Structure formats: C-alpha cells, structure tokens
Amino acid sequence: MNLEASVQQLANVFENAWNTHSKQKRITKHSKEWWNQDCTDGLNKYRESGDLKHWKEFKSAVRTVKREFFDNKIHEIALSNKRPWDLMNWVRKKSLPAIESISYENRPCNTLPDLWNALHKSYNSAENRPVNTRLLNELPQADNVEWPPFSSQEFRDAIAKCSLSSTPGLDHVSWRHLKAVISHNTCLEKLVHIANACITLEYWPSHFKSANSVVIPKPNKTSHNTPSSFWPIVLLNTTGKLIEKVVSNRLQFHMTANGFLDPNQLGGIRQRSTTDTGVYLTYIIHAGWLRQCHTSVIAFDIAQFFPSLNHEFLSICLKKAGLNTNVVGFFNSYHSNCFTTYTWNNFSSPTFNTNVGVGQGSALSPILSAIYLAPVIKIFKKRLKTLKENIPTDILSFVDDGLLISQEKSYSLSSSFLLCSYNIISKILIDAGLVMEHSKTELFYFTRARHSPNPSIDLSSVRGPVISPKLIWRYLGFYFDRRLNFNYHTHFYATKYLSTLSTMKMLGNSSRGLLPIQKQLLYRTCILPIALYGFQLWFFKSAPIVKNITELKKMQRRAAL
Amino acid sequence: MGAFRTSPSEGIEAIAGLIPIALHLRKLNGRHHLRYASIPPSHAINSLLDSQHAKNQTLHKTATSKLTMKQQANLKSPIKDVNEWLNSVRNYFNPLHPLFSPGSQIVDHFSSRISFHSPSSSSDEDLYQYLQSLNLAFRSSQVNHNSAAVITDGGVKKSHVATAAAHIWADNSVIKQLHVHSLNVTSIEAELMAIHTGLIPAMEIDNIHDITVITDSITAARKILESKVDPLQNMFIPLAAAVKTFLSKDGRNKIHFWYCPSRAELLGH
C-alpha cells in the first residue's frame, strides 16, 4: 500500500539518522557527571605513592569539583532556565529498586521467558473474553459528527503542548526533533497529508503501531510481587502519537458536544476533574442530611481496565457515538494487529501480539475508555428505570473507579438498594467484557448521628466477600470521614510534605544555593497545590473550618521558618 | 528563611512573601466557583445548580431549587456558594460553540489569508522600520481598487464612557465614518467594538477583496481567531462568523491586521 510505503520511508529516514549520529555511551553506576581531570590526576598520584596526604588532597579536589558542579547546576536551573521546580527531584524520597521475585499463578518466575509470559498474560487477560454486543442495541444513536480534513493549525496546536523531556518510542524521535521538523511548512503539510490519508483509507500504518511497553512499578504499593502491581506504559513512535493527539482533541470536543458521554462520567474528559466528583458527592450528602437521610456509597473498581477493553465492542460504541464509517474503519485498523515488546530495566522481550485493550500512555486511551464506559452507565440508568420497584441509586464514574450512591432513612433499605444496583452493574460490565475486582469494593456511610450503626453488606450473590465499612474512606485521593469534616484529609496532606520541606534546606542556605525568592516560588508551585488538594470540599461559607485551617497554618509556618 | 522558633507567624509569612493560608484559600475558592460558569452544558455539576445556571440540564432530585425554603436556608455546601458567585457573572460562555470545533475553526481553513503585523521589538529602530512598512501597506491599499483600509480605535474615559470609532478608506478617501458609545466596558472591549463597527461594513462592500485593519490593540484582533472560551466570547463570535463568511465567499479575500503604536506621533514619524 502506498501509505504504508511512504510511512515506512519516513521511518527509514529516522532510523538512518539515528544510526549515523548516535554514539554508544557506557554508563555504569560509577560514572559521575562532575568527574574531571583534576580528580583523575589526584587519584593517580595517590595510587602511585599510597600516601595519606595525597589521599586527602584527592578527596578535597573531589569535594571542590562536586561543590562547584552542583552550584553551577543550581544556578543554571534556577536562574538561566527559570525553572527552580526541576530541582524538586533532588529532594524526593529515594525509591529503592524492586528486587522481589514476581510470582504468577502461585509460581515464581525465575527465568526471563517465564517473566515475559507472566506479564503478557496478565496484561492481556481479557483476550478471548466474551462480550455481548446486543447490549448496545438499547442505546440511541448520537448525532452525526462532522469530520473535515485535518488542518496544519491543529497539528501546530497539538505539538505546542508536548513536553520536551518525555521518553521517545522505538524510533528514538523525541518531541524536540519533531518540533524542529514541523516548523518547516512543507514537512508539516506532508504530515497532514499522511494523517488525512489514514482516515480516508481507513488504515493505520504498522510503523505507528510498533510499541514498547515499559513495565513500571506502581507507586505507593507495599509489595511488588505480582504483575498487577506494575504498570505497562506504552511508548509509541512520536509521529504517530502526534496524529493520535489531534484525533483525540477532536473526539474530546465532539463527544461532549453531541452528548454521547454521560454527565456522570467524570474521568478522562476535558473540563471534568476529581474535584468536581468530590464536590458533587459532598453536595449530595449535605442535601441528604437536610432530608434526614444518611448516604451510603459502594465504590467498585474494574480490574485491569485499560488492557481489557474489547475492540469489537469499542467499534460499535464509536458507531453509536455518531462517527462516520471512515473514522470507525480507521479505529478498526488502529486496533488490529498490534505488536508490543516489554522492557524491564535493561532487558527487553520478544514481540507479543496484543489483540485487546488500549495502551496506557497513548493520547487516545482516556477518551476511548470514556466512550467505552458511556453506554455502560447509560444502560445502567435505563435498567434502573425499567425495574418494577423504584430504586433511587446514583452512579458516578471516574475512569475505572465507579461509585453507587443511595440515600435513605433506613440502613437496611439502602443496603438492599445498593446490593441490587451492584448486581445490575456487575452484569452489565461482564457483558461489556470487563471484570469487577470484588475484593477492592468498599462500602461507606455518611451520617451525622453520634451512635449510628455501621452494617456490612454481603456480596456473596456475585461471589464477592462480605464488605464492612471503615471509619476513613479514601476515594480519588480524598480522605472522607463519616461526618464530612475532612480533619483527617487536611492532616494527611499538610504533613505529607513536612519531610520534603526539611530536605529542601539542602538546596540553599543564606550563603549559597537557591535564593529565598526562588525557594518561595518552589514552595508555592510544588508544595502548596498538593497540600491544598480538595480544599473545595470543606472550604465554604459557614463550614467548620477552624481545625483544618490550623493544620495548614502549621505547615505554612514550618515552610516559612 | 532562618527565623526563630518563637517569631510570630504573620510576620514571617509577610517577609517570606506568602499569603496567609485562609486568604489564599479564599482566593482560590473564588476562582474555582467562577470556573463553573464556563463548563459545557453536559457537566454533572450543572444538574445540582439553581435552575437559571443549570444550562437546561435536568436537575438532580436534590438540586438546590428542589429543596424547600427552610432547607435552602439550612444548606451548607460548596454548591450554595457557587450559586451565589454565578449570580454576579454577566458574561456568557459556551465552550462547545460550532466555531470552536477543531477542524472547522477559522485558523484551520484560512490561516494563510489572515495576517498579523506588529513590530518585532520596542526599540526605536525596529519601530521606525515597522512604521515605514505600515505606511507602505496603507498606501498600497489605497492604490488598489479592490482593497480598503479600516482604521479603528477604541478608548475608555474616566467618566466610564467608552467610544469606539472606525474609518473606512478606499481610493484615498474616507467612505464611511462610524462611531459607537457605550458605558461600563473595559478598554479591550472598546477596541474589539471598534474593529467590529469598522470591519463588518467594510466586508459588505462589493468588489473588496483585500482589507487592511489598523488597530492599536493586536490582542483584541487576535481574540477573534483564537476560538477559545473567553469572557468576551459573545462579542467576538458574531465578528468571527462574519469573517468566516467573508473569507469563504471568495478565494481572493484576505484580511491583514496591522498594529498602530500610539507612541507614533510622539516620535514624529
């Protein structure tokens, strides 16, 4: 095919450039950036004589070189680049490399082939999982979406937002290179032609498909001994990624405009955030208390969400979303015959075929997952209405975290409503080829009463455990307590960065290093936004905020001292 | 900072240049509330707001307007504050306007036929060169029969009265002189209004394919093509729509925006 050939030619050009201009560098754990000739001389002198005096001289030479090097670096980052927040990496907690052995299906993976097999199987566990596409017949067809040819301006806008430091894909072309290429109008026009051809021919070239999945340990996990405690992050070729970004920008706009996405879906969509989810939930709880109702919620989690999206189901969803046949055909080609290699530290695996899921790290994955979930939520709402009994349950969804909300006066009634809707949603999800992780399901009650019961719910009807509510519930990074005073939440976030604050002292003192004004900037850009995360939920008129404010004041004082 | 353990917090904060935390929260909270004015209609938060802010979305069963008066008085919630803040917002936002749709924006189709000119730096030399080329552009627009120049200016006086004026020049003579007065507007609104009053009649004149707009606020001119959610959205959208029809009417149609520095007379050029 002509398109395939031209893209392959482009890939060859990049590869040739890489082969001719790249140099092999040997970096060991002993190589240091600051090492210079003085240090080598000093070391040689000591090695010849073996004298303690020469050793001391060598050490002092190293110290001066090191100090000079890092002072220059701080000066360069803070004053020349005007980006003092890049220095925050120096003061973070040093994470230890994962050295536990991975076990898969109760067997340890001792050889590399075993490991690749375990990774591939767990990230593609949804392969050959049945889906019921008849489910989507209930859904109304959304308005048609106009899809005019791409323009060069869209590409310019998309690349302007790309970070220069992100890791390139297999062809080693980073955003910096691509930005230089795109600044020439003829190159840009050629790229726009390729993108337009992809849509009209309904074909996604194989060069853009070749991916490399880097396996990264998920942060804040106590043990990393199963493949599911790692993230497979896909590194794609940058040129393809740029086209994906432009397509995703269009999908974001049109899916919100034609109302295909459900209002209660709050993740992966522009202008919808975790804070909105939190504000929505707190409002409902407060309003429920006015009607003398307590609020009970069940939070459920979808296991391995991104890697288990079914392509057949997704393509019907896209059709229902009002996209024309060309675009749907493009997505079919986009998903078929994907290959990936896995990379773990310095080892890389042979290529594996992936027939399921969207890659985490591709620009299209948030919006595609939102399109995948929209029918699930809409059908859930519809099923609730068709039931004989009126079940007033709300649903909220943030990517793979779902939430069922029920407001009743009696605990038994609300738990039976929740159980019923939990059954319904788990059935719909199974039809959509997704599996709920029942062990992660959480239950929580919001009540203002002093001695209120805290009953558990038995999920054995869906082969789940008995879940009992805790006193603090973590959802989307908010720590909810039963009376919504958020004392624990503010305490957690205010103390989270105390150690970072004290380590920031090493970036500068009164004689050298960062200036006080830069340190202030560092505090305001790197620490304050995180410490104040979710303040919208508790900071409002006539709210009891004294305790929370005191907590934050303490933190700010520590920072200023 | 290196202060003592017993130094008063307020003083340290003042010297360190930090806003007291309560005031900082109040500032951020106000911005957060105002953000809800610009969300698209299909946002979940809309279903909780008062009916006049809900952007025609079906209200949630616990929405503020569905509560009784007593309940509304007792309600304590962030959404209640949002409602109060939104009452003071007069601007109209629509992030999903068809003109903003990626792929159909003005810049997508006609970026080669619209140009912006402004001096490369504020140094006297650059300014002099720029003014030369501006003179040249204006003269050439008067020589050519198919082109016109629109000279616009807008300003706000201390009495809060804003004036927007525009002159349309073709064949070395003024064809039209237009002006509009308004109350309680910002200077950028006045500039935008001036471009609006001048450009729209100029585009309606027959046989004009090339329009040179001379304005002293290039930011206002750029806003027309930016296609972003903006407080001035309902002012520039009719203008942007008119520009779009003008450009799509004929392949020869072009618009040039020139910045005219107000300092020019002082320099005596």
Helix-strand category of chain B: alpha/beta
Q: Residue share in helices of chain B?
A: 40-55%
Low-confidence stretches of chain B: none
- The count of β-strands of chain B is 6
Q: Whole-number radius of gyration of chain B?
A: 25 Å
| Helix fraction bin of chain A | 40-55%
In angstroms, what separates the terminal alpha carbons of chain B? 52 Å
**Coarse morphology of chain A:** globular
Strand order of the largest sheet of chain B: 1-6-5-2-3-4
- Total number of strands of chain A: 15
Sequence stretches where pLDDT stays below 50 over 5 or more residues of chain A: none
Report the C-alpha radius of gyration of chain A, rounded: 28 Å
What is the overall number of helices of chain B?
Answer: 10
Brief summary:
By secondary structure, chain A is α+β, with helices and mostly antiparallel strands.
Give an overview in words.
The complex is a heterodimer of chains A (561) and B (269). Chain A is α+β, with helices and mostly antiparallel strands and 561 residues long. Chain A is built from 18 helices and 15 strands. In chain A, the strands form 5 sheets. In chain A, strands 3, 4, 6, 7 and 8 form a 5-stranded mixed beta sheet that branches. Chain A has a 4-stranded antiparallel beta sheet with strand order 9-10-5-11, with helices on both faces. In chain A, a hairpin with a 2-residue loop joins strand 1 (103-104) and strand 2 (107-108). In chain A, helix 2 packs antiparallel against helix 3 (52-80). The model of chain A has no long low-confidence stretch (mean pLDDT 83). The radius of gyration of chain B is 25 Å and the shape is globular. The model of chain B has no long low-confidence stretch (mean pLDDT 83). Classes of the chains: A alpha+beta (561), B alpha/beta (269). At the A-B interface, helix 5, helix 9, helix 10, helix 17 and helix 18 of A face helix 1, helix 2, helix 4 and helix 5 of B.
